[in-house]
Design goal:
The complex is a heterodimer of chains A (716) and B (210). Chain A is α/β, with parallel strands linked by helices and 716 residues long. Chain A contains 38 helices and 18 strands. In chain B, the strands form 3 sheets. In chain B, strands 1, 4, 5, 6, 7, 8, 9, 10 and 13 form a 9-stranded mixed β-sheet that branches. In chain B, strands 2-3 form a two-stranded antiparallel ribbon. A two-stranded antiparallel ribbon of chain B has the order 11-12. In chain B, a hairpin with a 7-residue loop joins strand 11 and strand 12. Classes of the chains: A alpha/beta (716), B alpha/beta (210). At the A-B interface, helix 2, helix 8, helix 10, helix 11 and helix 12 of A face helix 4, helix 5, strand 10 and strand 11 of B.
Chain lengths: 716, 210
């Protein structure tokens, strides 16, 4: 069991420790790469998207009928001789288990892995009452010997090396143990077999509680759940109310995804389906004593929440951690309380309280990798932002609120940005980077060169550069986003140049402001709605065929999030969808709408590699367009792990500079390995991060927006 | 008897092999029973992982536990006729052949033999009726678990067995159904794959012509 961080500086110290753990870093790195490839391979045989949406529908349906399912389950299970309980919270659940143990004269309890039992901290409760408790899942047993909590929902001991395990096993057996993994596994085989034999009560979790037959279903690879449910005379299964599903079919559908997502297996070695209290030779009367305890702990309330009820689609596969670039660096102990990974950041808030979640929920870079693999199609990044919004509302916003209120007023916000242009002069010497910022200001933020505010913003240049197109084929508007308006106006100018050359009329509505994503990331929901309103209105003054943005993050926010957050704003909610539909990312517009091909470019010999920005490749699912455009204009050299985050994440890189720096360093290593002389992407945030990192490391590579490459090589 | 779908048989074999199951096609029950005896004869004697009163103990095995002197084969779900054939063949080799009382041998037995109700080609999975404790234990405490699967009972994927599972689960008030896909395994230490953490070290599947 570890403590949840109390404040950000405490948390950052913990993170620093994790970043120094070479073994952890190496293990999680290897795992991240292997997992991605293996997962892809086992999903080729099934229709991933269709299965995920089937699971989402089935679990949503189960969530809507939670009470009826519970009643049905109770009826079916009790008909078959099983006793069904319902516990309002952790304490009540523990008390029920203790009562059952006492009534049955139990001394020794064996457990198979159960996150729900971890949630209620059952071991601590049982041990306090004098019961002997042994975990029997290998990973859980190891962390039990170490008095730790799981660092992953499926691989609880992934943070430990064979040497640490050998030490723990040597202590447990009183005999020096070899560090060979195969031998260590057999040590567990011998030690745990004896525990199975002597135990008189078995406790398991429950992957699916199937109402139609009152079934407990357990999914394991080791087979320990079968031992735990077979050998002792008493069996207690603990299930969250969210584990209820109506039919066997629902479980079979989910079983096609759960093992694939968890460990890239087609199916785990064992799936047990237990109905009724069957024969048990060691029990009095030869019949098993079987109890099922359903844990509420806030679930029945969450089930009614229109936004958060989708967390019950979670099947506890752990995939959201497996693909998370932050988990990859810091591991599960630093990325959750009991439940870890993206879903852990959310569940901690609901099951263990906002004081445990307030700091943890900040640690999401927003790359959407989790949403892309979730077995239940849960919109995890959005829910994490929602939690932040709640935490902010409950605590008051501090600096973020001040900044937020500045951003609410476009004029004040933009004047501040322009003022910064003058304030930075002593540090930039007129260059594109802030080279001379005193190191004491930077501290942990010194891993990348920070960009300078442009001498003239795009909005100030617009009157001079607006092209005259006499009989245009299309009329589009540009949504600049703050980064390109004030830091990288040249990226927008490059786009304008291409549009004009292809006979497209371009407009730049001056009333537009920040897209609102940074405000969302800071938990400033109200102000995010205000800026959404300003933007929708700014683009209503004329009819545009498309609203082009060269920032993938702005694009995904404007296209997907705005509609959701203005849902209850009567004055604009009806116009939000039309606005969102017009928003188009640069790559898609150039490739799909304008149809640019190799014939449009003087294709150069230059080796150019690509960084697939999170919001482009996952949130917007734009994958082929930018790569095809690069290949048309130059020599495209793919980069390893091209779709892995650069570590920017907007305000994330300021909040967690250590993590951001590490993700960046790994990214740049892979970029360097391509041998390319130019790295392009379709997002100014990533340009800021990667160009800053490349500059700091003195890499000989040009880091640009894709628009700049295309504009430079465009045939007249 | 439905006709054998050769495509499903091949898919099943390939997927089972991917999870380290040994797949063996055999023409008859007699050949299958002989296979069980052969496997038992060729394997190292089972290690006794715990005390078993009255058992003769041989030299230490690979995990420094004493080994069984007399090998044990358990076949709790065989019909009377097949069981006596197997019992005879075991007796000839000096093996004990049992069909109940497996709880007396929780320290570990050599071979457990059981019959699958059906197979699932997409994952190389066998569905086992393990309502009886002895049948369940035969697949849990044996070092080598041998499953007999009739080729005509292989289904394409999990959704295609839902109705059969429902019927079997609801056939009596207490049932215990197990899907088995490969031998017991773990990757909990450094993600290194290892078999036999709790259950069988080896899983053999006999695909029977029918």
């Amino acid at each position: 069991m570890h403590e949840a961080p109390k404040n950000l500086s405490d948390y950052r110290k913990q993170i620093d420790d994790a970043l120094q753990d070479d073994f952890l870093r190496r293990t999680l790195d290897t795992f991240a790469v292997a997992y991605r490839a293996n997962r892809e391979a086992v999903f080729k045989e099934v229709d991933e998207k269709a299965l995920i949406s089937q699971i989402a529908d089935a679990k949503d349906n189960a969530c809507r009928h939670m009470e009826e399912l519970f009643q049905k389950y109770k009826e079916e299970a009790e008909k078959r001789g099983v006793i069904v309980h319902r516990a309002a919270d952790a304490k009540e659940a523990n008390d029920i288990v203790i009562r059952i143990a006492r009534e049955n004269n139990v001394k020794h309890v064996v457990k198979s892995k159960s996150m729900t039992a971890e949630e209620i901290q059952l071991n601590t409760a049982l041990e306090a009452e004098g019961f002997i408790v042994d975990e029997t899942d290998l990973g859980e047993w190891i962390i039990q010997l170490r008095h730790e909590g799981p660092s992953h929902m499926v691989m609880p001991a992934i943070h430990l090396s064979r040497y640490q395990v050998a030490d723990d096993f040597s202590k447990a057996t009183g005999e020096k143990q070899d560090t060979d993994v195969q031998k260590l596994v057999k040590v567990a085989r011998v030690q745990l077999r004896r525990k199975f034999i002597t135990a008189d009560m078995g406790v398991t979790g429950c992957n699916f509680a199937i109402a139609e037959s009152g079934l407990v279903t357990t999914v394991t690879n080791e087979g320990n759940a079968r031992m735990v449910t077979t050998l002792p005379r008493v069996h207690v299964a603990i299930a969250g109310l969210d584990k209820l599903v109506p039919t066997i079919d629902d479980a079979l559908t989910a079983l096609q995804v759960l093992p694939r997502n968890a460990t890239a297996q087609r199916l785990t070695a064992y799936v047990s389906w237990i109905a009724g209290a069957g024969p048990c030779e060691s029990a009095e009367g030869g019949k098993k004593v079987r109890h099922v305890i359903f844990l509420d702990n806030g679930r029945s309330e969450i089930a009614k929440d229109p936004i958060f009820s989708q967390i019950f689609r979670c099947v506890r596969c752990g995939a959201c951690a497996n693909v998370c670039p932050v988990f990859r660096l810091v591991g599960g102990h630093k990325m959750g309380y009991i439940y870890i990974g993206a879903i852990g950041l959310i569940l901690t808030y609901f099951f263990h309280g906002k004081d445990k979640a307030a700091v943890l929920c900040q640690n999401c870079v927003g790359c959407e990798a989790c949403a892309n693999v979730c077995a239940g199609g849960i919109d995890l990044p959005r829910l994490i932002r929602e939690i932040r919004a709640r935490v902010t509302e409950e605590q008051g916003g501090g600096v973020a609120a001040l900044l937020g209120s500045v951003m609410k007023n476009r004029r004040i916000f933009h004047s501040l940005l322009k003022f910064a242009k003058h304030a930075q002069k002593p540090f930039t010497g007129g260059a594109q980077f802030q080279r001379h910022l005193p190191a004491m200001f930077l501290g942990k933020h010194g891993f990348k060169a920070l960009p300078a505010i442009a001498a003239r913003s795009f909005r100030d240049r617009w009157a001079d550069i607006k092209p005259q197109v006499s009989r245009p084929d299309m009329k589009v508007a540009i949504f600049s986003g703050c980064a390109q308006d004030f830091i990288y106006p040249e990226q927008l100018e490059a786009c304008v140049k291409i549009l004009a050359a292809r006979n497209i009329a371009v407009d730049f509505p001056m009333e537009q402001t920040c897209c609102g994503l940074p405000l969302e990331m800071m938990g400033q929901r109200k102000i995010a709605i205000d800026v959404a309103r300003q933007n929708i209105r700014a683009f209503q003054k004329e009819r545009y065929d498309a609203i082009i943005t060269l920032c993938a993050s702005c694009a995904s926010h404007l296209k997907h999030t705005v509609v959701k957050i203005v849902e209850n704003e009567r004055d604009i909610s009806s116009q939000a969808q039309a606005f969102a539909d017009k928003v188009t990312d640069f790559s898609s517009f150039m490739h799909d709408k304008l149809g640019l091909t190799a014939e449009d470019f003087n294709q150069s010999d230059e080796k150019v590699t690509y960084h697939a920005s999170c919001h482009l490749c996952r949130a917007l699912k734009v994958k082929e367009a930018p790569r095809a455009l690069i290949a048309s204009a130059a020599q495209y050299v793919p980069c390893d792990e091209e779709e892995v985050c650069c570590g920017f994440g907007g305000s994330y890189s300021a909040k967690f500079p250590e993590i951001s720096a590490q993700i960046l360093e790994n990214k740049l290593k892979r970029v360097q390995a391509t041998g390319a002389t130019r790295l392009v992407m379709d997002c100014p945030g990533c340009v800021m991060q990667l160009r800053g990192g490349a500059e700091k490391q003195g890499m000989d590579i040009k880091v640009q927006h894709l628009s700049e490459l295309l504009a430079a090589n465009l045939k007249p | 008897m439905p006709p054998v779908n050769q495509e499903l048989v091949e898919a099943f074999s390939a997927k089972a092999a991917l999870v380290n199951a040994v797949v063996q096609e055999l023409p008859s029950m007699a050949a299958a029973l002989q296979y069980v005896v052969d496997v038992c004869e060729k394997k190292e004697p089972a290690e006794l992982l715990a005390d078993e009163p009255g058992v003769a103990r041989g030299p230490l095995g690979p995990n420094k536990m004493p080994t069984r002197v007399q090998r044990v084969v358990a076949a709790p779900d065989l019909g009377d006729e097949d069981f006596s054939v197997l019992e005879e063949a075991c007796k000839a080799k000096g093996f004990a052949c049992i069909r109940n009382g497996l709880r007396k041998h929780l320290a570990g037995i050599d071979v457990g033999f059981s019959c699958a109700e059906l197979g699932v080609a997409a994952s190389g999975t066998c569905l086992m009726n393990t309502d009886s404790e002895d049948v369940r234990l035969a697949g849990m405490i044996s070092e080598t678990h041998i499953i007999l699967l009739r080729k005509s009972t292989i289904y394409p994927d999990l959704p295609s067995i839902a109705q059969i599972m429902r019927q079997r689960i609801n056939a009596s008030s207490a049932t215990y159904t197990t899907l088995i896909t490969g031998p017991s395994r773990t990757a909990d230490i450094e993600r290194v794959a290892a078999v036999g953490v709790h259950g069988p070290l080896e899983l053999h599947i006999i695909l029977l012509e029918d």
